[in-house]
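Regression test case RT-17, inverse folding.

Input:
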C-alpha cells in the first residue's frame, strides 16, 4: 500500500479522486456545498416536503429546487425519475464531467452506490392519493428498489462496467467507496463512480422519531447539550481511478483514497457498542490498509450524529485508536451542517473530506467555539469557522444501525516531501 515518504508523488497504483459531485441543502453542486461549509452555519430547519406537525420533532435539512439551467436536465430519465434519482444524477454528472469525462467514456467504468430510501417518498405519495380516493400519479421511472438511483445513473452516463448498489444503513455510502477502491485495485474497472444518495420520506422521519433518536433542534454533534440526530437529504459522488490512469489522460488529481476498513459491532439492532469497539476496528483496519500510523492523521470527519450514544461511543473508539494524540486531533462532523443523509452520508462526507484536504482546512461544526465538546466525548471539536491543518491525511467514519462500520483514509492531491512520521 502507498505510504507517505520523501517522494512528492503518489505511486501509480494509488486510487485517485478526479471528480466530485454534491447535492445538499446548500444547493446543487460542489461549489454551493463548499460555500455552505465555510459559513459555519447549519441548513437544518422546518422542512416543506411533508407535514411534520404530528411528530415530536419538526426539523430536517431539505434540498431546494434544482436550477433551471442544470446540465442534468437534458438527461434521459430526469423528468420521470424520483427525487432521489435526481439527487444521484446531478451529483454523478457533476463528478463525471468535473473529471473530464463524457457519457460513454471509459467502457470499463463501474458504479458503486449506497442508499436506503430510493423512491420511498413517491411511493408514500401514491398510496396517500389512493387512500384519499383520488387517481394516484407516480413518475414512471421512479423505481422503488434500492438500486433504482444507481440504475438511473448508469443509464444516463452509459456505464459499461458493474453496477453495485449497497444498502447497509448509514454505512452504505462509505462502503460503496470502499468497494470501488477494491475494484480498482483488482483491475476489475479502469474508472469507478462511487457515492450515494437518499431523500427525505415520512417512513424514516417517523421511524427515527419513534426511536426518540431525533433532536427537536438542529443536531449538535459531540456537544454536551445534544439531543439526537437531524435527517438530511442529497447526494455525494466521487470519480475514482488509479493515479497512473489519471495522469495518462491528463486528469487533475484532487485527493487520493489510501485505505478502507469495515467491521460489525454485532452488538445491538440500533445502539453502537458502548466502547465503540467495532468502529475502532474499522478505523484501525483503514489505517493498516493505508500503511499509516495514527500520528500521521491530520483530522477526522466523524460520523457524529449528535445522539448521546453514538457520539460517546465514537469518541471512545477514536481514543482507542489515537490514544493521547486525540486531544490535539481536529474532529468535525458534516452532519451538523447538512444533516444525516442516511445511506448517502458516508458519500457526502467523503466529498467534504476531500474538499478539506484539497484546501488544507477542515470545516467546522455550527456552534460557539467557546462551548467546546462534551466532557464525556472529549474530542478537539472544530466549532464555528474552519481550521487550518498541517497534515495531509484524514479519516472519515460511517457507523450504522446493526453495528455496520466503515472507515476511509484520504489524503491531499500529492504528499509533501517529508520523511519520518509525516507530521
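Golden output:
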Amino acid at each position: 500500500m502507498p505510504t507517505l515518504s520523501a517522494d512528492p508523488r503518489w505511486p501509480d497504483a494509488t486510487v485517485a479522486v478526479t471528480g466530485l459531485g454534491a447535492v445538499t441543502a446548500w444547493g446543487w453542486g460542489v461549489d454551493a456545498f463548499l460555500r455552505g461549509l465555510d459559513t459555519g452555519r447549519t441548513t437544518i430547519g422546518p422542512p416543506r416536503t411533508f407535514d411534520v406537525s404530528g411528530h415530536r420533532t419538526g426539523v430536517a435539512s431539505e434540498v431546494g429546487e434544482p436550477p433551471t439551467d442544470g446540465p442534468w436536465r437534458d438527461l434521459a430519465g430526469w423528468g420521470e425519475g424520483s427525487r432521489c434519482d435526481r439527487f444521484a444524477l446531478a451529483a454523478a454528472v457533476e463528478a463525471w464531467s468535473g473529471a473530464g469525462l463524457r457519457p460513454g467514456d471509459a467502457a470499463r467504468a463501474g458504479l458503486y452506490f449506497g442508499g436506503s430510501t430510493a423512491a420511498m417518498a413517491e411511493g408514500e405519495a401514491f398510496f396517500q392519493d389512493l387512500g384519499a380516493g383520488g387517481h394516484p400519479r407516480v413518475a414512471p421511472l421512479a423505481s422503488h428498489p434500492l438500486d433504482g438511483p444507481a440504475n438511473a445513473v448508469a443509464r444516463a452516463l452509459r456505464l459499461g462496467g458493474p453496477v453495485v448498489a449497497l444498502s447497509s444503513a448509514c454505512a452504505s455510502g462509505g462502503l460503496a467507496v470502499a468497494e470501488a477502491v477494491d475494484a480498482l485495485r483488482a483491475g476489475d474497472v479502469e474508472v469507478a463512480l462511487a457515492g450515494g444518495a437518499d431523500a427525505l420520506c415520512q417512513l424514516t422521519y417517523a421511524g427515527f422519531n419513534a426511536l426518540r433518536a431525533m433532536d427537536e433542534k438542529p443536531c449538535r454533534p459531540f456537544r454536551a447539550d445534544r439531543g439526537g440526530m437531524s435527517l438530511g437529504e442529497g447526494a455525494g459522488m466521487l470519480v475514482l481511478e488509479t493515479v497512473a490512469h489519471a495522469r495518462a489522460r491528463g486528469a487533475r488529481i484532487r485527493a487520493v483514497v489510501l485505505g478502507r476498513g469495515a467491521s460489525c459491532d454485532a452488538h445491538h439492532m440500533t445502539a453502537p457498542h458502548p466502547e465503540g469497539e467495532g468502529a475502532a476496528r474499522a478505523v484501525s483496519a483503514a489505517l493498516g490498509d493505508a500503511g499509516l500510523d495514527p500520528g500521521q492523521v491530520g483530522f477526522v470527519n466523524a460520523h457524529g450524529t449528535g445522539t448521546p450514544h453514538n457520539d460517546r461511543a465514537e469518541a471512545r473508539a477514536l481514543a482507542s485508536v489515537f490514544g493521547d494524540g486525540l486531544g490535539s486531533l481536529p474532529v468535525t462532523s458534516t452532519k451538523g451542517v447538512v444533516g444525516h443523509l442516511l445511506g448517502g452520508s458516508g458519500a457526502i462526507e467523503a466529498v467534504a473530506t476531500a474538499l478539506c484536504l484539497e484546501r488544507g482546512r477542515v470545516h467546522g461544526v455550527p456552534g460557539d467555539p467557546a462551548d467546546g465538546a462534551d466532557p464525556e466525548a472529549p474530542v478537539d471539536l472544530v466549532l464555528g469557522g474552519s481550521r487550518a491543518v498541517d497534515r495531509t491525511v484524514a479519516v472519515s467514519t460511517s457507523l450504522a444501525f446493526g453495528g455496520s462500520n466503515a472507515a476511509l483514509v484520504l489524503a491531499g492531491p500529492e504528499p509533501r516531501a517529508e520523511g519520518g512520521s509525516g507530521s
